[in-house]
Specification:
Length: about 220
């Protein structure tokens, strides 16, 4: 199965030169460490930053530089700072080409639930609702199953919905999936993970691409 870092590395292969990209809390933030060399990607953080760089090395952290998840970050030459109102103006105006989000559940029609578990204390949805409503493309980085081994790729989300029919692609610890009108489409498997195992762990509608391949690192 893929580690969190490998999920992020695989998602980084979806980046294209010149993209404006927002990285959500959790696994998505790791994508900043795997931007291909020679490629210009402008990372946006909804707390008010364009031009976010990779995570700092230990001992080089600046407590005044944080992302939306309150992690210390670095900035790149030409980066800019602004208030959250301007930041969400960029998001709502559709200026973000790609959003990478974590998820607790994804339905086979592209619905996503990633902000609340009933009965547990949460601070609020944050920027997730704006991002799923406004981004041009959404990729989800997630674990394929919960701690009990139950599928998180479902026919229908059971948790409160963040956005409807908005997810285009999923990279889980088991593989890479597109989402289309027929459900999840398996494109790539994690090293050592069989198609049959993925079928067993996926409750939503699942199709298998004719040319499924193993992810290489």
């Amino acid at each position: 199965m893929l580690t969190k870092e490998q999920i992020a590395e695989r998602i980084a292969r979806e980046l294209k030169d010149g993209m404006y990209v927002n990285l959500g809390i959790g696994i998505p933030t790791l994508v900043a460490n795997y931007v291909p060399k020679g490629m210009t990607i402008i990372l946006q953080s909804e707390n008010g930053l364009l031009g976010m760089g990779p995570f700092p090395y230990e001992g080089e952290e600046d407590p005044d530089l944080i992302n939306a998840g309150k992690q210390t970050i670095t900035t790149l030459p030409g980066s800019s700072f602004f208030d959250s109102a301007m930041s969400f103006g960029m998001i709502r105006a559709g200026k973000v080409n790609l959003t990478v989000l974590g998820a607790m559940e994804v339905a086979d029609n592209g619905d996503i639930a990633n902000w609340k578990i009933p009965g547990k204390m949460v601070k609020g949805m944050g920027g997730a609702m704006d991002l799923v409503a406004s981004a041009q493309n959404i990729i989800v980085a997630m674990q394929h199953t919960d701690k009990a081994g139950n599928s998180k790729l479902l026919p229908k989300c059971s948790l409160p919905i963040t956005g409807l029919a908005c997810v285009r692609k999923i990279v889980s610890d088991l593989g890479v999936f597109d989402i289309n009108a027929q459900g999840f489409l398996l494109l790539e498997t994690a090293p050592g993970v069989s198609v049959d195992y993925i079928k067993e762990k996926t409750l939503g509608r699942l199709q298998i691409a004719d040319d499924v391949k193993e992810i290489q690192f």
